[in-house]
Amino acid sequence: MIEMQARVVAVEDGMALVEPMSGGSCSSCSSSAGSTPSAGCGADKIGQIFTIKTKNYRVINAISSRIGDEVIIGIEDGAVLRGSAVVYMLPLILIFIGAITAHYLMPNINADLASIIGAASGFTISALWLFRFNQHASRNPHYQPVILRNAHAGTFILKEVKR
């Protein structure tokens, strides 16, 4: 599970809008196991260079968090890779299959024109399938980040009481 700390900025019907806490890395990959507190791959720092304002992300609010709560959000290992493979590889594969199939199924048409028609058909089919996949994945915790727990759950704060 890839985890990161965030602050809840809005809540609506089972979803929450969160803002990642600055200065932290996801602390989940092997590159964050270094001895320095800011160890990690640095992807969050590189991302901050190219963005002017802080980003807010929509996540599944599994623990009914409220605005202002500091929480730990997480996404399953491999979910990003699976989602990327579907979004990038499926259209490419269907474009090639469509172009090759149309080239052989339409021998009476110019070979280039048949390939273009087949590629466009493959792309259209993949776009329709990706639209349905996106609707399914938008609330599926296997593909979406989820609020796992409060960031300070189990933390005790001791205060000195003056008498």
Compact overview of the structure:
The protein has helices at residues 43-49, 79-105, 111-137, and strands at 2-12, 15-20, 57-60, 70-75, 146-150. It has 163 residues and is an alpha+beta fold. A hairpin with a 2-residue loop joins strand 1 and strand 2 (15-20).
Structure commentary:
The protein has 163 residues and is α+β, with helices and mostly antiparallel strands. It has 2 domains: 2-76 and 143-150, OB fold (Dihydrolipoamide Acetyltransferase, E2P) (Beta Barrel); 81-137, no CATH class. The protein has helices spanning 43-49, 79-105, 111-137; strands spanning 2-12, 15-20, 57-60, 70-75, 146-150. The protein has a 5-stranded antiparallel sheet, with no helix packed on it. A hairpin with a 2-residue loop joins β1 and β2. α2 (79-105) runs antiparallel to α3. The radius of gyration is 23 Å and the shape is rod-shaped.
Present the secondary structure layout.
Layout: E1 2-12, E2 15-20, H1 43-49, E3 57-60, E4 70-75, H2 79-105, H3 111-137, E5 146-150
Antiparallel strand pairs: 1-2, 1-4, 2-3, 4-5
Protein name: Sigma factor RpoE regulatory protein RseC
Keywords: Membrane, Transmembrane, Transmembrane helix
Transmembrane segments: 85-105, 111-131
The H/E string reads EEHEEHHE
**SS summary, helix count:** 3
Compute the CA-based radius of gyration.
23 Å
CATH architecture type of the largest domain: Beta Barrel
Structural class: alpha+beta
Structural domains: how many: 2
- The share of residues in helices is 25-40%
Question: N- to C-terminal separation?
Answer: 47 Å
CATH topology of the largest domain: OB fold (Dihydrolipoamide Acetyltransferase, E2P)
Largest sheet: 5 strands, antiparallel
Rounded mean pLDDT score: 80
Give the CATH class of the largest domain: Mainly Beta
Beta-strand percentage range: 15-25%
Keywords: Membrane, Transmembrane, Transmembrane helix
Protein name: Sigma factor RpoE regulatory protein RseC
InterPro entries: RseC, SigmaE_reg_RseC_MucC
Transmembrane segments: 85-105, 111-131
